[in-house]
Design brief:
about 230 residues, DNA-binding, 4-stranded antiparallel β-sheet, alpha/beta, homodimer, 8 helices, 5-stranded parallel β-sheet
Chain lengths: ~230, ~230
DNA sequence: TCTCAATTGTCACTGAGATGTCAACAAATC
DNA sequence: GATTTGTTGACATCTCAGTGACAATTGAGA
C-alpha cells in the first residue's frame, strides 16, 4: 500500500485530495506547512508528494528544492493557481516532476501522480545494461554497440529504447509511450512516436522494413521483442 | 439491487427517468439541485449517476467534477440539451463517462448507463492471460497460441475475445457487444458482430461450422463456454 | 412433417483509418 | 551562428473493420 503526502494548507482542497487518493487505494498523509511537509518526507516515507506552491510561511519552491535535496528520486507533483505564471523553467529548476493548475480535474491529478510514481519505480529497478541479438546497450553512459561497433543514438531515442526494453513483450500504445517517455509537459503528436520507432529500426534492425524486434501491432501500438 | 441517482430539476424528465429505471429493476434516487445531488452521492451510495448539465444554481459541470472528486470510480452519464455544444474535451475534463443529448431515447440512456456500470465493475479484475482447450491467450502481449503455434488476431478480434472471456457462460446480445466492445463513438450494424464471431471461429475452432466455444444462442446472441 | 419467415452463416469487396517514410521546419545545443 | 536533434506535415501504402448480398439454418405454426 503506497503512501502519498499532500502538502496543502487549504482545508477544502486537503479533504478533496484525501478522498481522491483514499478512494484509489492510497494512504494519505497531510502536512499544512512546508517544514511539516519536509518532516513528513523523512518520517512517513511517502511514494509521492503533492505540493501546493502557495503555502503560508516558506515558499513552495523552496520546499520542493529541499525535498528533492533530501530524496532526489521521490516524485513531486506541484499544484499551482491558474493565475500564477506557469514557468516550466522554474519547475525544472526546483525539481518538480509534473504540475497541475487549479482548478484541476481530480482524474488528471491522479493520473499524473500515478504516472510520476511509475516513472520513479521504473528508474529504481532499471537495469543499466541490456543486450539483444548483436546489440549491447549501456543506459548509464548512453552507449550502444552493434557487433562491437558503436552506434550513435540521440537522447530521445535512448529514452524510447529504454522504455520499450523495460516493457519488452508488452504491447505499448502510442499514448502510453507519450505519457511515460515524454511526460505531460510537452505532448507531441502520435506521429512523433512513429518517427522514433522508424529511427530505432533504421539504426538497429538488419532489415528495417521487416523488423524483428520493434514490432508494429496494428490498431494497438508497438511491441519490443528479443 | 442497484441504485441510480438522477440529478434533474425538470419534473417531467424526473418522472420519465424514474419510470424507466424502476421498470428495469433499479432503485431510483432523485435530487433536484447540484448540492442535493452531491449529498445523495455520499448518503445514498448509488451505482451510477445521471446528471443534467442544466441545473438551477450550481452549474452541472461543477457538480460532475465534485462527484468525481468524491467518488472517482462512480460512473456519471451526462444529459445535455441538443442546443448545447457537446464538447468532448469538456466532458473528459469534468470526468463524465458518457453523455446523451436531449431529446434522448430512454433505451439509449438505459443502455449507456448500464454499459458504464459494467465497465466500472469490470475495471476491478481483468485477467491478463486466459486458456481454454489448447488455446492460450495473453491480452497484454496480444499473443495467442493454439497447440503452441502462434495464431494472429487483430486488435478488434482481441477486444471481442476478451469481452467474451470475461463474460463466459453468459449470453451476450449483439447490442451488448456493440456497447461494450465498440463503445458509443462508432456504432456499426449487428452484422459486424457476426463477422467477428465468424473470424474468431475460423481461427480458433477445430470445426468452425460446429463451434464448441463460440456458441450461437438463436434469437438472443452469443455465448462463450470453455 | 412441411412451410415460411426470421435469424444467422459466409464471403468478397471497399473505404476509412492506421502506419511507413521522407523532407522540411523548429528547437535545442554547442 | 552552425550543427544536431526533435517534431510536424504531407503523401504513399497497407490493413482490416464494416457492409451488403446471398445461402443456410432455425423454429414456430399449419
Amino acid at each position: 500500500m503506497e503512501k502519498i503526502l499532500v502538502v496543502e494548507d487549504d482545508r477544502t482542497v486537503q479533504n478533496a485530495l484525501k478522498r481522491l487518493f483514499a478512494a484509489n487505494g492510497y494512504i494519505v498523509e497531510i502536512a499544512r506547512t512546508g517544514p511539516a511537509g519536509l518532516e513528513s518526507v523523512r518520517t512517513a516515507l511517502p511514494a509521492a508528494v503533492v505540493l501546493d506552491l502557495r503555502l503560508p510561511g516558506m515558499p513552495g519552491q523552496d520546499v520542493c528544492r529541499e525535498i528533492k535535496n533530501a530524496a532526489p528520486a521521490l516524485p513531486v507533483v506541484v499544484l499551482s493557481a491558474s493565475t500564477d505564471v506557469v514557468d516550466k523553467v522554474l519547475l525544472l529548476e526546483i525539481g518538480a516532476d509534473d504540475y497541475v493548475t487549479k482548478p484541476f480535474s481530480p482524474r488528471e491529478l491522479l493520473a499524473r501522480v500515478q504516472a510520476s510514481m511509475r516513472r520513479a519505480s521504473r528508474l529504481a529497478a532499471a537495469p543499466e545494461t541490456f543486450a539483444f541479438e548483436d546489440v549491447a546497450v549501456n543506459f548509464t553512459n548512453m552507449e550502444l554497440t552493434q557487433s562491437g561497433k558503436p552506434v550513435a543514438l540521440t537522447a530521445q531515442e535512448f529514452k524510447v529504447l529504454r522504455f520499450l526494453v523495460q516493457n519488452h513483450d508488452r504491447v505499448i500504445s502510442r499514448e502510453e509511450l507519450l505519457n511515460d517517455v515524454w511526460g505531460y509537459q510537452n505532448y507531441p503528436s502520435t506521429r512523433t512516436v512513429d518517427n522514433h520507432i522508424l529511427r530505432l529500426r533504421q539504426k538497429l534492425e538488419k532489415d528495417p522494413s521487416h523488423p524483428l524486434h520493434f514490432k508494429t501491432v496494428h490498431g494497438a501500438g508497438y511491441k519490443f521483442v528479443f
